[in-house]
Structures are given as C-alpha cells and as structure tokens.
Specification:
Length: 401
C-alpha cells in the first residue's frame, strides 16, 4: 500500500500555483501571497534621522557627562535643518527629523537640562546613537519583498512605504466541498432513524478557509450515481480543488471512485498506508484536483491536514506548504499499538518549563468531540511503541503556518 510520503509527493506534483493577478491592497487581499518581487523606489530613511526627541550633537566632543553646548536651532519632523552643528553647539531635534550637518548622535531630552540657550548633557553619547542613517533600512532599487511572501500587516506597511497600492498576487484557490451519504442530513435538521448530521461539510469548509482557500459548499449527494455525478460536475465548473466526503470505501453504495472515473478524472491513488484515512482517493481532472475523503470525521480531518492543506497552500503561491512535523517533547508517557502508521490528536501545553505535547484520548475515527481539544497531530509508526515523558515525537502544529 502507498505510504504517506509517496502519496504526498504525488499530490504536490499535481498541485500547481494558480496564475497571478493584480490585486488592490485592501482588506480582501490580506493573507494572499505575493507573486512578483517588490523594489523600493526610495532610500529609507530618506535622510539620516533622529530616533528620539533630544539634541543633535557631535559625539566626540561630549566624551564626559556635563558637557555644556549652545543650542542653535530647533528642527521639527518635516523640516530641514538650516544650520550646521559646529564645535560647542547642538540643535534641538524631534523624532523623525533630519539630522543637521556636523552632528552624529542624538542625546535624548530626558538626559539633558536646558538653561536659556545652554544645554547640559548628563550622558556621553556614542557616535551613531539614536540616529538612523539614510538608506539603512533599504536603498532605492533594492528588492524588499520576494515572491512567496504572505501579505500580513507588516508587509502592508512596507508596501505603503515604497508606494505600492496594488500588487501581483496569487488568487485564492476555490475549494468545493460535497458531502455524500443517504444517512446524512444537514445540521439544521433533526436526524431521523438511521440518520446523522453532516459534520464533515462545515468542518471541511472551515478547514479550507483556515488553510487560505475560498470555500464553497455544493450540497449533499445521496448514494446514487446520478446525484453524485450532478454535484461533482457543478463543483468542477467552479472549483480548483473538489473535496468529497464519504462514499470512497469498499461499501456497496460507495460510488465516488466510479463516478469520478466516468467524469474523466484520473485516479492517482486510492488507499494509503495510514490510520485513520486509509481509503483516501486522489485524482485530477486536467488542472483540477479532487480528493475523496473517508466519511468518518476524524479521518477526513487528518487527510485534510496531511494532503489537502499543503495542496491549497501550493496553489495559493506559498513556497513552504508543509506539512511540517516538528519534534516536540511529550508531556506524559505514551504507548501506542497500531497496525499502520498513525496520526492522532494532541494538545500543546505551555508551561514555565517550555512547550510540550500531550496526546489526547479519542474513541476512533468518528470522535469529533475528542478532536476539538486538539491543536496538533502526532505521528507514530506501526507496531507497539512506548515513549517516555520528555522524549520527542513528530507533531504537526495545526494553528501554525
Ligand atoms: P463512508 O466513508 O461513506 O463509508 O462513511 C463512513 C462513516 O462516516 C459513516 O459512519 C458515515 O455515516 C460517516 N459520515 C459520512 N459522511 C459524513 C458527514 N458528512 N458527516 C458526518 N459523518 C459522516
Ligand atoms: Mg457513505
């Protein structure tokens, strides 16, 4: 049976970044990924500037405290100095104002006393103290942001500094979700005999949005070829990635694999050596990706985070799409015994001793309630394994990029 790493490689081979488009830098594009490098059109700071309110001085003549200097002018932010600071002189300067010629340091206001035009320094400044030289942050023509950068608040600020109000970015992948199963009713309904509510639909839509996609629900298909075919067709018309939950195992009414084949989908794999999530199906329809997830909610959740989240991140232009498992020390002893490599829910614990991870008890692949306390998945090999508290275990941290 195909191993997780090999399956992930197949998925990522077929997941290609979408075509970049221009986007205005409004709240809608927050979190999108930059597609072209950004160059600065300015030196920043554009002049050597004061970083504190205080006095611009010549540091090498103020080597002892209690130096007394004559104040020759006052420079506010937005004004240019008109006088050079000569020996024995200082200029009063405000944060952000250009440093006058002759000066090479700023002494903060709190460390001075003024009497008339004479200022006494209580400290001996170093050359360069409390000033930022012209072009120190960036120089004109320099690349300040590279493709693959996720646009967050700080990038918005930098883009504004260099005069960009729009950028070339990757569009968000459209993720279509279809729930399948005769027994599934929508969450606003009371399940009748033999029925359960559709938890995968809302869960997968939320997961797709959290992963950085645009999610759309296409509805629930009963276990019939006709209904499945109609919904999958609709989803292929709209979405870049189509996710189906249920109907992909070996049951008599599991029609998803054959319906996908009839619709021209090439199946790249069906079944994986992992627990939960063994029946996972992955296929492509030209550039579109399709995942058939096992219906059990925990299986769907695990498959989503191992395979679909990385695919979404690659389509949306991220350069680091994961999943990245990091070694985390266990908060407690932990013994597992599984017939396949297994991914189980776990919780991070933040204590004064540091961060550790505690595997959570769960009652199999239908236990969504058990999953709600988790913020990581831990990976354990097949067979009986005993870990001791403090030993590290690979964990996928779900809330981190
Ligand atoms: P299946 O993969 O269709 O064989 O379904 C496996 C199990 O998952 C069954 O117990 C289903 O009732 C359950 N299941 C399937 N789809 C959903 C869903 N959308 N929400 C919650 N449970 C589901
Ligand atoms: Mg089913």
């Amino acid at each position: 049976m195909l191993e997780v790493a090999a399956a992930l490689e197949i998925v990522l081979q077929h997941a290609r970044p979408l075509t970049p488009e221009p986007f205005p830098l409004d709240s809608q594009s927050l979190g999108q990924v930059l597609a072209a490098p950004i160059q600065s059109d300015i030196d920043s700071p554009p002049y050597t500037k004061a970083l504190m309110d205080g006095y611009a001085v010549r540091a090498n003549e103020c080597t002892t405290p209690n130096t007394v200097l004559t104040v020759i002018e006052e420079i506010a932010a937005g004004q240019m100095p008109t006088k050079k600071v000569e020996a024995g002189q200082a200029s009063r300067i405000m944060t952000g104002a250009p440093l006058p010629d002759g000066a090479d340091a700023v002494v903060p206001h709190e460390k001075t006393t003024l009497a008339g035009t004479q200022v006494t320094l209580q400290t001996a400044p170093r050359v360069g103290e409390h000033i930022l030289e012209r072009g120190r942050e960036m120089q004109r023509g320099e690349t300040v942001l590279t493709p693959g950068t996720i646009l967050r608040a700080q990038e918005y600020g930098l883009l504004a500094t260099v005069g960009h109000t729009s950028v070339s970015a990757y569009p968000l992948p459209k993720v279509g979700v279809i729930s399948t199963g005769d027994e599934i009713v929508e969450p606003d309904q009371r399940p009748g005999p033999g029925q359960i509510r559709n938890s995968n639909g809302p869960m997968l839509l939320a997961a797709a949005v959290f992963a950085g996609g645009l999610a759309q629900y296409f509805g629930r298909a009963s276990d019939t070829r006709a209904e499945l075919t109609a919904l999958v067709r609709e989803a292929f018309d709209e979405a870049d990635i189509v996710i189906l939950s249920g109907g992909v195992s070996a049951g008599k009414f599991d029609f998803v694999p054959e319906v996908l084949a009839e619709l021209g989908v090439t199946t790249h794999f069906h079944k994986i050596l992992m627990k939960p999530g063994k029946p996972l199906l992955f296929g492509t329809n030209q550039e579109k990706l399709v995942f058939g997830l096992p219906g059990n909610p925990v299986s769907s959740f695990v498959c989503f985070h191992l395979f679909i989240r990385p695919a979404i991140r690659k389509l949306r232009g991220e350069t680091d799409w994961g999943p990245t498992f990091v070694p985390m020390p266990l908060a407690c002893d932990f013994t597992t015994d599984n017939n396949r490599p297994t991914y189980g829910p776990a919780k991070l614990e933040l204590t004064e001793q540091g961060i550790s991870i505690r595997p959570l008890a769960w009652f199999g692949s239908a236990d969504l309630r058990g999953l709600c306390g988790c913020d990581a998945l831990v990976s354990v090999p097949a067979g009986r394994v005993s870990y001791q508290a403090g030993q590290t275990i690979p964990a996928l941290l779900l809330n981190l990029a």
